[in-house]
Amino acid sequence: MPAARGRYEPVMETVRQIVLVRRPQGVPQPDDFALAEAPMPQPGDGEILVKMRVGSVDPAIRGFLDDRPSYLPPVALGAPIAGMSLGEVVASNNPDYTAGTLVRAFATWSDHYVIGADALGLEVVSPQPGTDLHHYMGALGPVGLTAWVGLFAVGEAKPGETVLVSAAAGATGSTVGQIAKARGCKVVGLVGSAQKAEVIRDLGFDAAIDYRATPDIAAEIAKAAPEGIDVYFDNVGGETLEAVLPLMRLHGRVPVCGMVGQYNDADHPHGVTTLWQLVVNRIKMQGFITYDYPEVLERAQRELDGWVADGRLKPLANVRDGFEKLPEAFIDLMSGRTIGKTIVRI
């Protein structure tokens, strides 16, 4: 396919796509997806054609597969799955994104796709020498930016405070814990296995709690953080949120990144009975989307790059190879079988 800086001349080829053929019931299954072909998309005025290099596999995608309102429209049956992607511009009708430029944006699970300058999260990626490209979809990409925005812009974490992180061995949680430590916080992580507990201890967490191994998660958290919790970075919601709220300190903050504990059963959400604690301790609880905070992203990227360079942030990635591995990787993620950021290299 020719690369061009100016007007793109169409080439009749096909693209591979991962499409939704059945809405999942509970944990997604292989038969919910299919590998399909479609005509090569052609960029229009101001648009670019991008070849996927790295596909991001995120829990939030599960919400787009149900036919219900979310912060983005649901994926239609027969349409490619929506998700973050990092790719190379192979043809351009936009002088700001010339052929050969690496970009990341919210796109689709297609090995080639067309986006405009208004695409959600569209950014130019400039990899640092010696850093694997896939990390720019993880700790040095949307995952790291989400962790930074949630912890510092929303959660307002300060040196000396105690930070609790759920899903702490996951992509965002493992990053949150490390950057909180880099800022001088005490960090407690909640995980779902002894193996994951060992992983986050090795990353420098002050305490790791395997919630599956304890009948009283609140008691274990209180033991690990007797001073109380200043910031609870919530990735799971549900029963865990219910247990944590009474342990928050006065003027505590709860940045709500996700509620993965309910994604596979959105029709039966857990009713949190401890919300009165928001009033008792004047707690701020706020959901957020990373790209609602464009004014801090440059600083966030600079600090993330610096922490990786000096070794205080160790990117944790679960990497697969091959476009067709996207559904398998997503199913493993939603089944709780992964550690770190789940990524597929194309």
Automatic annotation (TrEMBL):
SUPFAM superfamilies: GroES-like, NAD(P)-binding Rossmann-fold domains. Keywords: Oxidoreductase. SMART domains: PKS_ER. It holds the Pfam family ADH_N_2. Residues 26-344 form the Enoyl reductase (ER) domain. It comes from the Bacteria. InterPro entries: ADH-like_C, ADH_N_2, ER, GroES-like_sf, MDR_fam, NAD(P)-bd_dom_sf. PANTHER family: PROSTAGLANDIN REDUCTASE, PROSTAGLANDIN REDUCTASE 1. This is NADP-dependent oxidoreductase. It comes from Novosphingobium anseongense.
